[in-house]
Design a protein that fits this description.
The complex is a heterodimer of chains A (316) and B (132).
Chain A: H1 3-8, H2 12-23, H3 29-36, E1 44-50, H4 56-69, E2 74-80, E3 89-91, E4 106-112, H5 119-134, E5 138-144, H6 148-155, E6 159-164, H7 171-176, E7 185-188, H8 196-209, E8 221-223, H9 232-248, H10 251-282, H11 286-294, H12 300-313
Parallel strand pairs in A: 1-5, 1-6, 2-4, 2-5, 6-7, 7-8
Helix pairs in contact in A: 2-5, 4-9, 5-6, 5-10
Chain B: E1 6-10, H1 19-30, E2 34-37, H2 44-54, E3 58-63, H3 68-81, E4 88-93, H4 100-105, E5 110-112, H5 118-128
Helix pairs in contact in B: 1-5, 2-3
Classes of the chains: A alpha/beta (316), B alpha/beta (132).
The complex binds guanosine-5'-diphosphate (GDP) and magnesium ion.
């Protein structure tokens, strides 16, 4: 049986190997991804983001219980940052989810950001696609909500969940910094802690002040105590309501178009950049370019134009 | 581009101390590896499944409870059953020297004694994983 066929039939070993190749940027992974792409687009993708320690993995773990009771197969992609100093990473999201490790219907994959060009969102999307092709019905993508990359990933989900916790002091500051726009659903977790009600009031105010969304969806707030599973059922049904709303008012179609465009641009960008950088390296031009720029013998705008022109006239 | 080394560090058995395992995890990260850490009290099934899903090169097992003779070989055996015998399993913790030959026969490729330095473990991993 071909590798693609094995993955389509849900073969964990084959899928896992491909994911490794994707992550390591092994060129042969592209061939398989090409074969799998037409079979993707069936999974419902849920993004979950928020500060470190806010309880994202615990929430994912508890949501999986509900999805599994409904006999839905689940894929989880948990992204943690790579240390910029060592290039290494400790990926600990599984600690909260290991209960599901022996459930054949749950596939968990930890990913490090690796911090290279277009790295994070590209491989995350590719890995989500592999899970989609495997037939996972629900795919949860957990990312730490700090950088632009994370925001982009969440943006490509069907439903994006933003997790906050009470008592951080600068909560509302954090909320204002661009995270409001990406949340379809907000969760205040650790409601056993003081300040949950105040946080909810503040958040509600911020949401009311925000620009009305084009799709008419008003993001709900759920209060949870994930460690005890409290509020998780409501959260899952909130997701289902959002899904329904997406499907009813044609937002889904627009979202899918946006996603397709984002995927295409992402791949275009990485491929073009990788190609050009390789070319410059092969021709040994890096040093001259940098020297010329530093000494002001050339300007970067003209140099880029020059290199583009070289490439575009090739083969004509 | 070279492959990144991925290692799963797991603690099978019932004892709840994972300081040693965490020290190893941090040392491997600082050596530039990606370390998947699964926490304490893991069954061999959980460990093997996690290793396969995570696509790791190696699994490092740590045990202080004396259950290594039954649990370590079990991990190797399940990996084999699932067609993942290429994942190398090594162990560490409190393991009597006399147990080492039997563990090696059962497919545990290397055992590190409590005195082993993290450098030794890093070196072992780097030398035994193909990164190109
Ligand atoms: N007090 C309290 N702690 C929680 C709750 N949910 C999760 N935690 C704890 O918060 C810590 C971080 O949780 P985790 O799910 O790993 O957070 P993540 O970094 O956002 O994925 C863990 O120790 C959890 O047990 C909650 O509702 N209340
Ligand atoms: Mg987490």
């Amino acid at each position: 049986m071909t590798l693609a066929k094995r993955i389509l039939e849900g073969d964990i070993r084959a899928a896992s190997r491909l994911m490794r190749d994707i992550d390591d940027r092994v060129p042969s992974a592209l061939g398989l991804l090409k074969e799998l792409y037409p079979k993707t687009g069936r999974a419902y993708i849920i993004g979950i983001t928020g500060p470190p320690g806010s309880g994202k993995s615990t929430i994912v773990d508890k949501m999986v219980d509900i999805f599994r009771k409904e006999e839905k197969s689940v894929g989880i992609v948990a992204v943690d940052p790579t240390s910029p100093f060592t290039g290494g990473a400790i990926l600990g999201d599984r600690i909260r989810m290991q209960r599901h490790a022996t459930d054949e219907g749950v596939f968990i994959r930890s990913l490090a950001t690796r911090g290279c060009l277009g790295g994070l969102s590209r491989s995350t999307q590719d890995i989500v696609n592999v899970m989609d092709a495997m037939g996972k019905e629900i795919i949860l993508v957990e990312t730490v909500g700090v950088g632009q990359d994370e925001v982009e990933i969440v943006n490509t989900a069907h439903t994006s969940i933003v997790v906050l916790v009470p008592g951080l002091g600068d909560d509302i500051q954090a909320i204002k910094a661009g995270i409001i726009e990406i949340g379809d659903i907000f969760v205040i977790n650790k409601c056993d802690r003081e300040g949950a009600d105040k946080m909810e009031r503040d958040l509600r105010l911020v949401l009311e002040m925000a620009r009305k969304r084009e799709d008419g969806w008003e993001p709900p707030i759920f209060k949870t105590e994930a460690i005890l599973g409290k509020g998780i059922f409501e959260l899952v049904y909130g997701i289902y309501r959002h899904r329904q709303a997406l499907e009813q008012n044609r937002t889904m179609e627009r979202k899918l178009r946006e996603r397709a465009k984002a995927t295409f641009l992402e791949i275009l960008e990485t491929e073009v950049m990788t190609h050009l950088i390789e070319k410059l390296e092969k021709e040994g031009r890096w040093e001259t370019i940098i020297d010329d720029l530093v000494n002001r013998r050339a300007d970067p705008y003209s140099l880029v134009e020059e290199i583009m022109a070289e490439e575009l006239t090739k083969g004509h | 581009m070279a492959r990144k080394i991925r290692v799963l560090i797991a603690k099978p058995g019932l004892d709840g101390h994972d300081r040693g395992a965490k020290v190893i995890a941090r040392a491997l990260r600082d050596a530039g590896m990606e370390v998947i850490y699964t926490g304490i009290r893991q069954t061999p099934e959980q460990i093997a499944n996690a290793a396969i899903q995570e696509g790791v090169d190696m699994v490092g097992l740590s045990s202080l409870s004396g259950a290594h003779m039954s649990l370590f070989p079990k991990v190797v055996q399940i990996l084999k059953e699932k067609g993942a015998e290429d994942i190398i399993v090594f162990g560490g913790g409190i393991i009597p020297v006399d147990d080492i030959p039997e563990l090696k026969k059962a497919g545990i490729r290397e055992i590190f004694q409590p005195g082993a330095s993290t450098e030794e473990i890093i070196k072992y991993i780097q030398e035994n994983v193909k990164t190109t």
